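Summary for the steering committee. The consortium agreed at its last meeting that each partner would contribute one worked example illustrating the joint modelling workflow. Our contribution is presented below. We chose a case with several input lines so that the handling of multiple components could be demonstrated. No manual editing was applied between input and output; the record is shown as generated.
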Amino acid sequence: MSSQIELRYHLNICCCMIMFAHYIVAMTMKLGLIALLLALTSICVSAAVFHPISQSHRSAALELFSNADGRKQTTAMAMKLGLIAVLLALTSICVSAAVFHPISQSHRSAALELFSNADGSFSSLEEAYEALRTFEVLGIEKKPEDATCKSVVDTLSSPSSNSKDLYHALRVNGLLKCKISTAALEGIASRLKDGLKHATLLLDYYHAVGGLLLIKDQSPEVDVLLGNADGIVRSIKALSQSDGRWRYSSNNPESSTYAAGIAFETLSGVVSLAASVIDENLIGTLKKDIVKLFDSIEKYDDGAYYFDDKHIDASGHQGPLSATSAVVRGLTAFAATSGSLNVPEDKILGLARFFLGIGIPGNSKDLYYQIDALSCLENNGVSVPLILSVPATVLSLTSKDKLKVRVSTVLGSSSPPLSVKLMQVFSSGSKDASVLKQELRFDPKEAIYTMDALPEGVDIGDYVFAFEIVLSDPELKSKYATGGRTKVPVHVTGVVKVDNAKVTLLEGDIVESEKKLDLPGKNDVALSANHLQKLHLSFLLTTPLGKPFKPHQVFLKLRHETGVEHIFVVDNTGKQFKITLDFLGLVEKFFYLSGQYDIELTVGDAVMENSFLQPLGSIELDLPKAPEKATQPPPQAVSPYLRFGPKAEINHIFRVPEKRPPQEVSYAFLGLVLVPLLAFLVGLLRLGVNFKNFPTSAVPATFAILFHGGIAAVLLLYVLFWLKLDLFTTLKTLGLLGVFLMFVGHRTLSHLASTAAKLKSA
Amino acid sequence: MVKPSSSAATKDDARALIHSLRSAYSATPTNLKIIDLYVVFAVSTALIQVAYMAIVGSFPFNSFLSGVLSCVGTAVLAVCLRIQVNKENKEFKDLPPERAFADFVLCNLVLHLVIMNFLG
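What follows is the complete predicted structure of the assembly.
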């Protein structure tokens, strides 16, 4: 659910964000003017996206930007912080004067888009009514399918439909004029009257009374008059609260503004259906209720008034738009029956502004609320709001644009004869305003009020123009709500003259060389200087009216061949802008980098039509050599856009395999290792080794063989462990083998020992 | 003429020394000679591996270490066995050579389990 301030605020924030983003990008790029240009493009972009309120947003954004105080940009950080603060502050400033536009063609196309289903049918009669009502108000000729009419007839003839269904069907019938017999309507009327007798809920009253009213309109011969009108009014009034809001039922303590709107509509219906005149006192208390309800009205800075609803209503649809729409409907219905309305006209105009300020809502329900409420405001006989709109709020002095003002009703129809006066012009810089009372010329052909020349003294810059609408016929004054003064932000742009631009090279106070510059134009200065000299740049800026002008951005930039940049803010005294670069004090800032520096001058402002970013030429600097401790120039940041590009691919670095010896060497050593083994075997033969000690009898020999086989098995197990087995398997097998080996080893060795002992004793 | 005569005398002395050593060693029992031969075999194998490492580099260092330590370890165990088996060594007079051999086998098996684990 959008509301005017929310929408505006979001859009402004949107603009601010885009501008701010561009601004930071530009600061990183150290390009002052590009910031300005990008910001202007972003304004256009946002205007294009939010098309219907394009003009007001373009100007609001322009105002935002032009007020942004970019003048004291000493350091980037301070400036950024300052900018945030200024932008936040400006969101409130820029809405204080705003342009509202009446309903236009864009609303019609939006309505067609939002309400058109693929097959032209509607899911419910309520939705059908909303679509048809919106089309009717906007003057769109679109015939729905016969299915809608059939559904109306079905609903009305079905005995099971309740008062709500009947009400919605009758509403659609009121627009479509389907064929319903008078007898059928009479039956429905009696059913609704019966329902009214047992009604306890506010919505029951609303549907029944609304249905009876619709029958009265559609078929005057049906008797719909209510005998007990006073009683019904009293029982509805019993649901009201002390703050002017209403409850939906007596059990539910929560009150809502939406319910109040419905209650007023129902009550005015009862009044017009009453068989006898309603008690004057009752009408009087209802009027007091309206005044009380208006105490809770809320206001935006731009003069829009609205009602906020904190509670969810029966239909589940809540928010300022539905609540305000319901109140407006109830209010105008009440005004139509009672003939007067003691609501101040600025409130009426404020409500109209609220609905217009929304622009084009995003869903069909909101669009219906907006259009229906505006239609009620347009057609009320008591106080019709007149909307003053300015088609173009950016005026160029160069092309001598004329200020044009249009006055119309909310739906865009022409206004009664009237005159528009420009009362005051506020300059954005100063608080004082010149009082003018200048009347605008009316062009009946285009229905536009034109001011042939801008008021005297209006130079380039930002202004707020205060207009007043004066109706030619004083009798109409009570019929229309003009709402006093309408403030409109206006931006005047023009060409700023650049004079006496020159660049000078000084040594001490003696002028070494001087060169005149042609700004904005092509320049190619070629200078050379050492650290004892100074560079001096000066120029004059004058507005078309000859006044001094201070743009947002005046920067001088020096860029070294290596890409290191230095930005200097050029200060002014009156018209004259000048800057002196004393290289002796700047050597450290320049990182002792000698060589060629490109000079660039930026002069930019939102209202300056000839903003420029101009290369002036170059200067060859001869600076002393850097001492050892001097700071190194910062590495040049890559373009900020590159930061979002793909990062360098990460490759896994594999371990380089160790250098292996040639195979021949390894084989040679394998052979060499076998040599000692051979020598060992030969040595054993030479020593005369024999197996005489090996047991000869069967049993010890078996044990001895098993013992040696066991050792061989363990060694084989080790080889297997080396080749494929894991430690656990190896250890398990080794345990078994070990026990076996101990046993056979013990038997063999003890046998050997006993034989040796026998030999000794023998 | 002093020098040559003295050098000839040294040569003779050395020859006499080696001769006496050989004659003394020939008196050693054969089983000890076998052990000595085994120790020489093990140490020379270790030396060849060290030479290989010096020439080629120690890249699979754990393999080199296990190879060398296997040889050196066995040599040490063989020396221990020789000490225990030697009849003239009074200290182990009561220890039967079979028992010493059993120790030798057991220690070798444990040593080579570790070596195999370390071989990689």
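Chain A touches chain B through 37 residues (CB under 8 Å). The first helix of chain A runs from residue 4 to 29.
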